[in-house]
Write a structure and sequence with these properties.
By secondary structure, the protein is an alpha/beta fold. The chain folds into two domains: about 60 residues, no CATH class; about 180 residues, no CATH class. The protein contains ten helices and eight strands. The strands form two sheets. A six-stranded mixed sheet has the order 2-1-5-6-7-8. Strands 3-4 form a two-stranded antiparallel sheet. Helix 1 crosses helix 2. It starts with 13 loop residues before the first helix and ends in a 9-residue tail after the last strand.
């Protein structure tokens, strides 16, 4: 349970101000649908656009329009700086719909994967807020993929460069300020100014436990920029080495440091052989 001193009242987070600015009380969308749409548009603003909504302060009740919801995020997630969660581990494969055998195999494979990364001390660097494993939220029927977009082929994630994965947006609904953080929101400002191509900078690591990961042990790693776009260079790493790749990123090594051509559209396997090999 949160201590009262840890509570972050509505109006403090940059996304709060965005909600106040954009919430439409007459929208035909449900509350959850409108929240999701705002998270997507918030991400798509990019760093410069989001910086137009600075960290807030205590607001009087009169300053908040009565139609603006203040409970879109839980108290626990509001109190946590999003910058601490720049690694999102998302399970997307739960087996075929209405196929108990497939679902059982998917669960067994995923449990094997989680057991391996647990044995490699992944829990020392990531907490439960970094893991997204709820089938109701991340199963194949849980979100709508934009028309004309393909995110999965037979359960295997595509990771198309320039795409904004629907499952990532679902995860960011917990902490919409994740791409920038809160208390250290401008931590990369100078880097963005000095980088020759800011849109190629990695701001987020998305680790995808798709069908290939659950069945073959090959985990997908996506680098995401400040606009929520998947960068061209993706990695498949085996289950045993997946934790190391995560820790390397947390220590400041972006995925593109594993290639000489970060703009090349490629899903690179870090090694040969069996994805379950130790």
């Amino acid at each position: 349970m949160l201590d009262e001193l840890d509570m972050v009242s509505f109006g403090h987070l940059p996304f709060d101000l965005y909600v106040m600015d954009k919430w439409d009380p007459d929208s035909p969308l449900t509350k959850t649908q409108q929240f999701r749409a705002l998270v997507h548009s918030w991400v798509r603003l990019g760093k410069k656009g989001r910086n137009e909504y600075p960290d807030g302060d205590d607001l009087s009740p009169e300053e908040i329009p009565p139609y603006v919801p203040q409970d879109l995020m839980s108290d626990e997630h509001r109190a946590t700086d999003g910058q601490s969660a720049t690694v999102l581990w998302i399970r997307t494969w739960y087996g075929r719909k209405n196929d108990p055998t497939s679902q059982s195999a998917a669960n067994a494979g995923y449990n094997r994967l989680r057991s391996i990364v647990h044995d490699n001390d992944i829990d020392a660097g990531l907490d439960e807020d970094n893991f997204f494993e709820n089938e109701d939220e991340f199963g194949s029927d849980s979100f709508t993929i934009p028309e004309g977009k393909t995110e999965f082929i037979d359960g295997v994630a595509c990771g198309t460069p320039g795409s904004v994965p629907s499952y990532m947006i679902t995860a960011l609904m917990r902490k919409p300020d994740t791409l920038d953080g809160l208390s250290t929101r401008d931590w990369t400002e100078e880097l963005y100014k000095n980088h020759p191509d800011p849109d190629m900078m990695q701001c987020l690591m998305v680790v995808v436990a798709d069908r290939k990961a659950c069945e073959e042990g090959w985990v997908l790693f996506l680098a995401v920029n400040h606009k929520g776009e998947v960068l061209p260079f993706r990695i498949r790493e085996n289950a045993d080495m997946a934790t190391l790749l995560i820790y390397n990123y947390m220590d400041g090594q972006s995925l593109d440091e594993n290639t000489r051509d970060p703009k090349k559209d490629i899903e690179y396997y870090m090694r040969e052989g069996d994805g379950w090999a130790c």
